[in-house]
Design a protein that fits this description.
The protein has about 90 residues and is an alpha/beta fold. The chain has one domain. It contains two helices and five strands, in the order βββαβαβ. It has a three-stranded parallel beta sheet, with helices on both faces. It is globular and about 40 Å long. About 15% of the residues are buried.
């Protein structure tokens, strides 16, 4: 399967995928991450297990540190709040 946007092979993880939530269980980002996980599992989009990992605290800097510690891994993603860009 090709990634139509780039003409590259589609991403296929080889081991467990982590969806990171920068809040404790039950927090807003946790609920979003779990909804994403449920949709991925329902649609059977992955051939490997996936799970939500809560990394709360320090204004999401702990989530970024978690990702930076796994640079190049490509099996961790972050659940992020929707942000808007103000127009001036």
């Amino acid at each position: 399967m090709q990634d139509a946007r780039r003409g590259q092979p589609a991403w296929r993880p080889e081991h467990e995928v982590e969806i990171l939530a920068g809040t404790p269980p039950g927090g807003g980002l946790d609920r979003s991450a779990r909804a994403l996980l449920a949709a991925i599992e329902s649609a059977r989009l992955l051939e490997v297990p996936a799970r939500v990992v809560n990394v709360p605290g320090d204004g999401a800097r702990k989530v970024w540190a978690h990702l930076e510690a796994r640079a190049g891994d490509r099996t961790s993603c972050r659940s992020a709040p929707r942000t808007s860009r103000p127009t001036v």
